[in-house]
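ugh ok so i messed up the first submission bc i forgot one of the chains. this is the corrected input, ALL of the components this time, i swear. 354 residues overall. if the numbers dont match what u have on ur side tell me asap before i send this to the collaborators (the ones from the other lab, u know who)
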Amino acid sequence: MQDNAITGILYVAFGLVALVTLGKNDVPNIRQHPDNSAVRVAVALNAPDDGPTQADGTYPAILAYNEVGDYIGWSDWQHRPHIKSGGFHDVIIEQQKGPGQQATYLQLFAGTDAVCIAYISQTWADGTTRGWLGDMGRACGRPYYYSHIFVGNDGHVPDCIWMDADHSDDPDHDMPAALQIHMQEYTNLTTAYSRDPAHYCDEECIIFHRDPTKHLDFKKHPPKEDRLFRGNHPPGGPCCMDDDDGYAKRNRQRQQPRNRRPPALAARLVSSPHGKHSATDLCGSELSHGPDFVSWSERVFCDMGTKVSWPLCGSGGSVGGEEGEGECYEWETHSLVTGGRKVARHYATVEEWG
Ligand SMILES: *[C@@H]1O[C@H](CO)[C@@H](O)[C@H](O)[C@H]1NC(C)=O
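and heres the new structure output, hopefully the right one now
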């Protein structure tokens, strides 16, 4: 059990491998039978379907496998809790096919509401804890956003990775619908862990799947038999969205701005005082996706639709030289001051992160 307190979680940020120490508040806190394990999923943002929203169904459906790849258990697929933005939920993995075994591989299947996952943590049957951070989404070239969830004893705020099963919130079609994570790889088990950032996006560590759900019915029970995904890239290569990887590439070649957001996200504004949450960086990233964003530490507003950033009014900055003279974002009225006029943004929700 001494392992619990000091699980180090490896992640990649800004091209470097870093380490966070998982605290006891970061792991599942739910009573489990000693045959079973538990999984926590924490989300930064939850984008409800525009259609009729059910109270549940946003928590990913989970399958678990042991270290040799045998299918050992599942979460309750029919009663999947709804996770609020900025919240988490703990679920039990029923290990009927492998009582007491270590659930070192997890497969998570998103629902049709897009969610942005900040971290996933586990407690195995034997009490060992493991964790994985949403930072790996950006590191592995997947759509991401900031989170306001603190993990570990050092106050790390991970980025979150978007998942969406039906790609309704995913106009560029590059969000995974499922993740397969080898949880074991993200722990610093020896001091000789890999220092190569690319390793942690390798298919031995993680597989991003665009459309795994053809044969799975999430309204029913988990499958009786299942197996691990295999990457479609050569072993050791960077991993992987399935067959349709060409879609994102084609799109990028057309140089279309990644500005097509579902209305629910476009009608939302997020602000954060956190020094790590740079609006300029978010705006400058091709992979970022989500609501418009205000950074109080920079005093900058990022229009995530156009990926253009504006100084807050009264900050003394201006947009793009003479032309942009006097142009700014006015927080008080939530409008852009441009060409001598105020253009209201009409947000339905403004979320102020503390
Ligand atoms: C792993 O990380 C933890 C927490 O940061 C640290 O206490 C431990 O010594 C590390 N273990 C190894 C083998 O590097």
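quick check: The longest strand covers residues 37-47. that seems consistent at least. Helices lie at 2-5, 135-139, 246-253, 263-266, 279-284.
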